[in-house]
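Progress narrative, work stream C.
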Amino acid sequence: MNRTDIDNDTPATPKGPLVRFFMSGWSNLVRMMGVNVLFIIFNIPALALCYYMAAVFIPMLAPVMKWDVFITITETDGSEVISYQLLLLLVVFFVMALLSSLLICIGPFQAGFSQVYKGIRTNTSVSLFSDFKRGIKENWGKSLVAMLIGIVLTIVFLIAIVFYASLGSQSGIVVAMIFGILFFAFILIQNFVYNMMVATDLKLSKIYKNAILLVLLRFGPCLGLALLVIIFYFAVPFFLLMSASYLTLGIYLFLYSFVVISWMQYFMSYYTGKLIDKYVSTDD
């Protein structure tokens, strides 16, 4: 018996959220790459602030994080000196880690990018620049406050980590680790905040409250999300840059200029959207 007609009427197997994420991202690949490039260009003022913070915190963090071993070289006479080329690469790592994780960024511009990601996620995007301008126009006030909160708390966390880790005691190390955990939790919160900002009409205080509650409520998945943040915003860039070869430097420049930042931020937007649909009231 010919069952072609029956087979054709069989509904397609529903695709899982991860498959839909990659399909939507891939179908908007050029737009995603454009967002990645624009994110860096529009955040040049934030890059300047990150560079200043690198000049302040790297000398304090290097001994604590054992970065000295990566930026020192042995001279022919056996003495060890700091390589300024390797130090510059460490600065690049520090600057881009703060920027890409949204701890230090231009808030209104990030609201615009979050609107672009929302349009891709919901398949309601008009155009990159139309969505971008809408996100800025509708959320510039809240995003400016979120930007200031990000700057202040990032400085507080870094100072706390350096201070307690420098004590050298076991209790100091434990407290420094606690602040380190809070540091990465705050990265998730900031990403949730910008995405929730463009998806709801909530006041900023309620947005932060909901972002914190989501991290606590979905602790397990958020732990996995934090692991992805550590891998793609900290571990991989550190490895590529500190390898100090032209090949790894080229790979880093390509990936983080065109691919990784936008895909990670879109993944945050996609995951936040699912949480908003399930847990958050969008009315103020």
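Work stream C, second folded protein:
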Amino acid sequence: MRRTTARPLALALALAGGCVGDDASTSSASTDSASASATSSASESGGSQSSTSAGTSAGTESATSDTTTSGDTTSTATSSGSATSDATSSESSTTGPGVDCPAPEEVSADFSFSGPEQVDAATCVVTATDITPPAGSISLECAGEAYTLTYTLDPFGGPELAVDQEVILDYRTDPIFWTNRWISLRSGDFTVFGGVSSSALDPPGTTIAAFFGEPVLTELGGLCEPIDGGCGPEERLALEMSYKGSAQLILDHGVGYFNNLAEAIHLNLEVARTTPQTTCDDYPEAWYQLVFVWHSSD
């Protein structure tokens, strides 16, 4: 169902499963789009508008569909970010020390930002929202400048933002052979929309904890035995999402959901993997692709 609003411009610990894959994106001052993508011979992605895939030669673009490979499970993600599995996803995959690593879920988490390559704590006002699951957009006015944040989430859990609501915008990019990106929309003491598409979890010059505030995201490894990712042994990672004294563990290609009866946080972790001894040129040793949103509890 489409929902549009606008005004004129003035646990306990739990595991959810995933596979590996990443996307490296080029950026411009007007449009910054891409999701994380990496494969053995082709690009892996969560869906992007314009991407240069790490693991292949720089400049290779994929605007319509990419391939995600995880062990013996291969899925094709369309440009909207949704994926259809070719193999059985109900079976457990590799097993690490004391952990039965679940097979991948079909998860997409993508975002793009039409604005400058860096924005530092800009005070902005929401001028419009457009929600058409699994996609959405947020229009912002920041010191007289108009920006747009677009996103794709599958499963969907869009942010709860109202027209005329004030938010603090932070945006970072870090171009390598690909472009790392981080974005945060903060309201009060917590982030209502956060996204990472990067080979590093921490933005340049800061930490992910300082950048997002709450929820706090902490990387955890050593849960799953490495698998053959085509560019060397790949290890699936997990993130611990902590919020107001509660924590949940989310494995890559997994979904986390926190609910304290008054509010909720929905996190899509499309990719969290490391390939410390890669055999491919211009291939990131790690990749993180995620989006989380805050909304009032159902």
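Confidence is low (pLDDT under 50) at residues 1-98. No further action is required on this item.
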